[in-house]
């Protein structure tokens, strides 16, 4: 590495104080920095010094926070008002068919929008979302246009026919589906209907290539992105940063005809039978719960899958299959209700994916209380009967 | 009721050797059970179909309860759909069962859909249970969804149904059953091979997306990201009366859309 040579005369001239008959130099003043910033090890050490201890102690971890403070301060106003991106004249369209159970986008659906944005932003295209019930979150998720599908209830064949009509009429360069139970089914129906090339369960995606596993996960298949793609979960990051307009568009779909499906009825999972990894709502007990009968009754009445911390499983009070955490089950649940659990890191790893945590603990400083969206500092042995009584009272009235 | 089960040439998930695909044996079990339930009315019979160069270990299916296996012999590279479509149309089956995806081929699960289109049959995906419908000529299908949920459907027969791995386990293997079973070989008309527009290489598992762990962050920050996901606007109640705590918890659960206790 070569450094520019120092010019002592120029360095001195930089300290010159203007005005006055005689030249005056203020050597204490720092001249405006040019080029690379210099590290000041003494100032860094002063920042890392922990005050109030007899022995000199340096907390170097703090330095990371100090250094990253500057870019964070710049990033904050961007977060406050995400930039609205308007694509008035799209070069092409990339369609997304999210599952959106109950009209809300799932995490997998958001990743789908991330993939669609990647394909659309490559060449000035726009993202078109096909949904049953248009919601407000679509613009934030990354949709430029929104088309409402004229389907009600469970009728995948009618949905596929509607999509087929749209695929033929609109110039859709790609159509993306989630590789989930309903999304994967719909994608294959459309592939069989239209005869378009279809890439199932894509594990990595870029505008140049898509890959998937085949031959019993021994071979990776790779090609340029075809028209129909279904995306495996957790393969692409969701879209973030910019806001899109989510403009509703009109399209005249053909009249749906009745299929061979005579009736369809949704049956929710039995929480007592589903495995912990699949459960949607988990109630979990830790060392702070001594009344396990009340706990089991509460789990049954709330319709939740029971879990436990390692302490209870080690003690034989709960089955090993119920253990939540790094060496137990990593949950995929939406809601986690922790009773008397301290929140050791090994336990919290099992809860990392849960959207919402409710904690009851006697210790205000427990890690679980910090993690929780609703934290209650109280005795679990008193809260559980109160909750049971409240539920019973509700049922009676 | 005449039932056909589509059996593909699979590979074992661990050893990689030729083996029947587990989910297709589960489909076979559903077919055998359904045929037994309908046995009184129309004399159930279950036929297996395979299109490919050779049967190999698929004769194991005979040991898992299949009585009759039809082998449509064709070239290994040929598309199996046309041969299967003609055989299925000629057989006049009420119900055709297939696996949700193969294991050892392309594994895209697309073949049942192209077959359903070619035969003009309705298709139902991911069955975990089958039962004869109340009205004659209908079938009750229990469809497996994510997180252990189910959907109960009633379809008019004939139909094509793919089977999910949440279906009951295959019938145990019986050697005598394999000896007793009948294999019929037919020559399939030559079909064009699908154009290979993909490039294949050895599989490399790709890292899954991690929540928010910023790349380049320190180990401490990555641990924090893994253990403390953001839970917006945490509310803290210190020493409330148990009744008040219970009311708060229930209101919170309801706000999250859980039917707790209802
Ligand atoms: C290699 C390794 C792997 C591990 N894997 C796991 C794992 O997978 N899963 C797991 O859970 N643990 C695991 N652990 C153990 C983990 O480190 C903790 O020891 C364990 O999670 C603590 O369980 P706990 O919170 O129930 O118990 P404690 O730590 O004893 O906490 C009990 C909590 O209950 C509170 N409490 C007490 N009385 C009451 C009351 N009346 N009402 C309300 N609250 C009350 C207390 O304030 C305290 O916070 C692992 C440990 C190791 C070393
Ligand atoms: N060559 C074949 N012969 C008979 N059935 C097949 C054949 N290939 C696939 N199938 C059926 O189609 C299902 C899906 O296969 P695939 O589309 O290859 O994932 C399989 O589970 C089988 O039931």
TrEMBL record, chain A:
SMART domains: ETF. Keywords: Electron transport, Transport. Residues 94-266 form the Electron transfer flavoprotein alpha/beta-subunit N-terminal domain. Gene3D superfamilies: HUPs, TPP-binding domain. InterPro entries: DHS-like_NAD/FAD-binding_dom, ETF_a/b_N, ETF_a/FixB, ETF_asu_C, Rossmann-like_a/b/a_fold. Belongs to the ETF alpha-subunit/FixB family. PANTHER family: ELECTRON TRANSFER FLAVOPROTEIN ALPHA, ELECTRON TRANSFER FLAVOPROTEIN SUBUNIT ALPHA, MITOCHONDRIAL. This is Electron transfer flavoprotein alpha subunit. It comes from Ancylobacter vacuolatus.
From TrEMBL, chain B:
The keyword Oxidoreductase does not apply. The lineage of its organism: Bacteria, Pseudomonadati, Pseudomonadota, Alphaproteobacteria, Hyphomicrobiales. It holds the Pfam family ETF. This is Electron transfer flavoprotein beta subunit. SUPFAM superfamilies: Adenine nucleotide alpha hydrolases-like (SSF52402). It comes from the Bacteria. Residues 22-190 form the Electron transfer flavoprotein alpha/beta-subunit N-terminal domain. Keywords: Electron transport, Transport.
